[in-house]
Amino acid sequence: MTDYELRELDEHGATEALAEITDSALAYLSLEDLLVELLERIRTAIHADTAAILLVDRERGVLLARAARGIEEEVRQGVQIPLGHGFAGRVAAEARPVAIEDVDDAEIHNPILRQKGIRSLLGVPLMVGERVIGVLHVGTLHQRSWGESDERLLQAAADRAALAIDDAQISEQRAMTEVLQHYLLPGSLPVIPGLAISAKYLPAPGAGVGGDWYDVFSLPDGRVALVIGDIAGRGIGAAAVMAEARTALRAYALERHSLEDVLSLLNALIVGAGRRRSVSVAMFALDLETDALDVVSAGHPPALIVRPDGSRELIAPASGPPLGTKISSGYSAESVAFPLGSALVLYTDGLIERRGETLDDGFARLLRASLVPEANLSLADRAYRDLAAIDAAVEDDVAILAVESYALGDTLHLTTDADPTHLAALRRIVARWLTQFGVDDAQRFDITLACSEAAANAIEHAYGPRDATFELDGHMSAETVEVVVSDRGRWRRERKSDRGRGLQLMNALMDEVIVERGDQGTSVTLRARRK
Amino acid sequence: MTMPAVTSLNGLPVAAMPTDVDVANAALVGEQLAGAVTHDAPCLVLDLTGTRYLDSAGIDMLLKLAERLRNRRQTLLLVVAEGSPLRRLLTVMGVDASLPVHASVAEAAESGGGGPGTLSPR
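Predict the joint structure of the above. Result:
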């Protein structure tokens, strides 16, 4: 055969091999299966003993072994190669092929390659445009001198593989991040009579999901906690830090730490974990009995409060830097009044920030947004409608959490989990209801505490997962207040003397206490003549 | 769970009680308080001026804590603002018949500084 004929055959073989490596069937595989299948085909086409793909992890500045054939240990042991070091690290850092004829003459970072007795290596970068997303390398157990055609074939395979990997990686990351976001944002918002709570989360168009979050929960002291936060960056990394921050914040808050301490503890945690991401967060605690709203912010934009007279103000300015940047000297909380008829809009910066605008422009737009009511639109929906919905320049995720306080009617209905930690929150709601109907301080205390005792009784009766809630129904008239607390648990004999004290307490505070025990559960009716 | 903050006034331990003492936290608060009193203290002052609600489990905890301290020849002194609903509750439930109730921490500290047994309840 002439040189020409040989080259022809080579070219022909290479083209065929290439077509086999990246046929369209691969498009339907998951990233994991895709990588393994690609490697097997490449190994066969190039007559190599091993093949491996390492992908760049930018957060950690390393290459991570993601798939391998012939050297499967590399993946099982989670081999990490620092960018710029060793054989694969050099391929990635220099974005060009590297051929090694004898590993004894080269710097090899990965001990598995030597352990397996690999003599020769050829690596090429996985490129998407100008971006290196990983490295593909093949190896042989016998010494082999890599020719230009080997390099061309491997690079051509790598180029096609890179696109498939990038696509799969993006859609996989997006899917994972969306699942994470979906899982972490409250599935349903708590139902708190007297408060209309609404929320909205919109990922930025086209980009990976970010680390915005909101949260609503009851504190052990009965206040309603409202949280809004934003992790710098986007994608799975931001979502993972969001998961940590959200969970840790809840844990610290449920341990009865003050608002200031919750943020300081969270900051120490994030800094200590070396997450290298800044986290802006604002936390609010609303006392439904006193209408006091305590606020604290770490580098988060101020919230919008709309007063009952329609006046607006930005509250909760940052009292310290975002979390996660350094050990801070601490955060300070302040308290503002949140009287009946007030509204609060918490948001992440995507709602107000626009390219080419100052932050003050954004605040100004927020302060003059109409927020005018519209059928079936919550306050969070209206904030989005007025500030972001028609604006093509929205480039970031948007999270909104909004709360409006409204007057309770003369009947009050509560369904509460049979969990004693909810009693404080129940007392706040009952007290708020009584206050709105002009019941004086002394009688409010008596009725609220009696309701709480009846509820504690219901919680004690409830057992087993099916009976894990109880109901409270209040009826207000000009002359009397009547509250019925009912559970569906079976009556059990009083086990302890302190429940007897509970009945004594109810009798001492109310004009009438009726306990009815039936097959369907127990109900306690409490009546008081209004003073 | 964070402890009720225990400070010292004229050498006497003073515990600031939470806004709510109920069946959810009474047992834990009681344990923490009992553990916070050293054996050489003549009394423990419980500052309930910031406490809005105290339910039957909370009352039970106070009575048990008082008994526990009594066995150590120590006195439990309650501080509840005069005219407050909580004061009335302690009366209707008969708690003030067995536990001294004071209007301020200063008043309680003054009466409790005389050493163990000086305020022993009847």
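Chain B touches chain A through 23 residues (CB under 8 Å).
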